């Protein structure tokens, strides 16, 4: 990335923080009212205080554990169900209608279901997180599996491969790009739902703490919670994206295709090296014709 | 149907005999293809099938491979009905069907991995085949890094590494330029030597069919003709070859 672009990327959030600080420290009231709104400095000092406490890290750990469990469950179930629906008519008939009916229900609306079904609140939160991330993963997997090049499967079949071989050597690796599309969406939705669920029924956790701060009118504390959620979300989705790029390194590069490939991370070593070796070791492409 | 000619390249009689008996070919939910009804491909022979693009030659290969059941009639290998695809009949695709996430070597190792050949043997065999197709230095590359001609060579290596008894080739050189194509034909002849495999080679290029085949099958009529000088480049302009070319061109 060029220096100019880096500068813009740093300057844009800084400018937003500056505007926020100005509006709140001057107590601007132009229809939007900033008198009660905490200033950036207040939020920053609240954050500095919280980071030193054990409670902050405990909350963070609780939220992270919930999302990790819920998201991993959703990933496994979503990939399995999506593949089954795409590959088997029987699974499509049994699961397809069910999925389409349950999918539009917001995961957070499943709180009563979670309370009725599961013994503990903790499990309820994981359940809701999982339900939220499940459908993006399932639907993306289904599409990716259906879009596979049939020649890949036929090639493996005519080399003697059976169903299991096709599944593990063609279907799963071939649909990884689509699966990771679903996982990227899923991790975002999972954060929204884990925080919401914590606000409703949690003990500990970033969402729970944020809501607590709100009920005791600790507005800087609320913003500390929001900032924490933002940073955690960013980190986890970056991790998912990075893993996705790693396992789909075989996709054509932007230079060869369009620009829609999510593989333009600066400094990704896989990007340039193989092309260079291809140039260094020229091999005669054409055999001489007798 | 004319008698099979045993090709000079096939030493051991390991090739499969493939045959269509009263077969009507086509997709289950589509129209039938007006292809050959009865056909016998002798063990170890190289049969080329010519016909215009889109006439259903691919359907014939997919049926022989066992990927597609015939609408009527039977398909047999050594007299036994073909019911499903298997390692005996490898298919080489027109557009490369290499798995793009596997390295060139891992692609060539695939038929051996499927057969649970030990890793060391697998690797050695793959290296050997890559050497034979002139890609020894490319084993670690992903298929996306290779040219079209190189990818087709990897496909050849992958198809042959599993020691299939028949190789079904669907216009494998159709997308290549003329020079590369001639080189690939020579390479194919070279690497088939000693495998003994029966080959069915589908093409719309009459010259390619006349050069490579022991016999040429005309797709639409099902007529099978002996090639006077198989795989001899300098026999192109001999009268017998010219006569056959005219006959084939007239019938297309």
- Mean pLDDT over the residues of chain B: 85
Based on Cα principal axes, name the global outline of chain B: globular
Question: The CATH topology of the largest domain in chain B, please?
Answer: Rossmann fold
Biggest interface: chains and residue counts?
A-B, 34 and 45 residues
The assigned CATH architecture of the largest domain in chain A is Orthogonal Bundle
Instruction: Return the domain count of chain B.
Output: 2
**The CATH superfamily title of the largest domain in chain A:** MetI-like
Q: Work out the helicity level of chain A.
A: over 70%
Q: What strand line-up does the widest sheet of chain A have?
A: 1-2
The count of helical stretches of chain A stands at 11
Compact description:
The complex is a heterodimer of chains A (290) and B (252). Chain A is an all-alpha fold and 290 residues long. Chain A has 11 helices and 2 strands; from the N terminus they run H-E-E-H-H-H-H-H-H-H-H-H-H.
Structure description:
The complex is a heterodimer of chains A (290) and B (252). Chain A is 73% helix and 1% strand. With 290 residues, chain A is mostly helical. Chain A has two domains: 30 residues; 211 residues, MetI-like fold (Orthogonal Bundle). Chain A has a two-stranded antiparallel sheet with strand order 1-2. In chain A, helix 3 crosses helix 4, helix 6 packs antiparallel against helix 8 and helix 8 runs antiparallel to helix 10. Chain B is an alpha/beta fold and 252 residues long. Chain B has two domains: 153 residues, Rossmann fold (3-Layer(aba) Sandwich); 66 residues, no CATH class. In chain B, a hairpin with a 5-residue loop joins strand 1 and strand 2. In chain B, helix 2 packs parallel to helix 4 and helix 4 runs parallel beside helix 5. The two termini of chain B are 19 Å apart.
């Amino acid at each position: 990335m060029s220096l100019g672009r880096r500068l813009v990327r740093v300057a844009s959030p800084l400018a937003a923080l500056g505007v926020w600080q100005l509006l709140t420290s001057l107590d601007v009231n132009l229809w939007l009212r900033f008198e009660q709104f905490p200033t950036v400095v207040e939020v920053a000092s609240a954050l500095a205080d919280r980071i030193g406490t054990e409670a902050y890290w405990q909350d963070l750990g609780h939220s992270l554990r919930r999302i990790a469990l819920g998201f991993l469950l959703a990933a496994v179930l979503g990939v399995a169900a999506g593949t089954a629906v795409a590959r088997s008519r029987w699974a499509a008939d049994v699961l397809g209608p069910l999925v389409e009916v349950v999918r539009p229900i917001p995961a957070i609306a499943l709180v009563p279901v979670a309370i009725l079904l599961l013994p503990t609140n903790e499990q309820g939160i994981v359940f809701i997180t999982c339900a939220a991330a499940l459908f993006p993963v399932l639907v993306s997997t289904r599409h990716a599996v259906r879009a596979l090049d049939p020649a890949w499967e036929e090639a493996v079949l005519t080399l003697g491969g059976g169903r299991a071989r096709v599944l593990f050597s063609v279907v799963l690796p071939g649909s990884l790009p689509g699966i990771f599309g679903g996982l990227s969406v899923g991790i975002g939705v999972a954060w929204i739902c884990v925080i919401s669920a914590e606000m409703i029924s949690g003990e500990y956790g970033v969402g729970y703490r944020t809501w607590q701060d709100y009920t005791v009118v600790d507005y800087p504390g609320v913003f500390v919670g929001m900032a924490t959620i933002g940073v955690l979300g960013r980190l986890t989705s970056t991790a998912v994206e990075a893993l996705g790029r790693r396992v789909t390194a075989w996709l054509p590069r932007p230079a060869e295709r369009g620009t829609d490939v999510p593989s333009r991370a600066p400094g990704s070593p896989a990007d340039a090296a193989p092309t260079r070796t291809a140039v260094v070791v020229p091999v005669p492409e054409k055999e001489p014709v007798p | 149907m004319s008698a099979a000619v045993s090709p000079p390249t096939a030493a051991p009689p390991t090739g499969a005999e493939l045959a269509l008996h009263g077969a009507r070919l086509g997709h289950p939910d589509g129209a039938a293809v007006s292809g050959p009804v009865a056909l016998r491909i002798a063990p170890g022979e190289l049969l080329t099938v010519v016909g215009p693009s889109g006439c259903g030659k691919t359907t014939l290969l997919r049926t022989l491979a066992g990927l597609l059941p015939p609408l009527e009639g039977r398909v047999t290998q050594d007299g036994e009905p073909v019911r499903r695809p298997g390692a005996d009949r490898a298919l080489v695709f027109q557009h490369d069907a290499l798995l793009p996430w596997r390295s060139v070597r891992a692609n060539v190792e695939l038929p051996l991995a499927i057969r649970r050949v030990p890793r060391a043997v697998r690797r050695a065999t793959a290296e050997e085949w890559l050497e034979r197709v002139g890609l020894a230095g490319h084993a670690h590359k992903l298929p996306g890094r290779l040219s079209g001609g190189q990818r087709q060579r990897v496909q050849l290596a992958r198809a042959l590494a599993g020691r299939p008894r028949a190789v079904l080739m669907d216009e494998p050189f159709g997308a290549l330029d003329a020079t590369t194509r001639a080189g690939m034909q020579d390479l194919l002849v070279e690497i088939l030597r000693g495998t003994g495999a029966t080959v069915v080679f589908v093409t719309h290029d009459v010259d390619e069919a006349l050069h490579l085949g022991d016999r040429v099958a005309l797709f639409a009529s099902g007529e099978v003709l002996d090639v006077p000088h198989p795989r001899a480049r300098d026999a192109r302009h001999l009268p017998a070859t010219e006569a056959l070319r005219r006959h084939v061109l007239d019938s297309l």
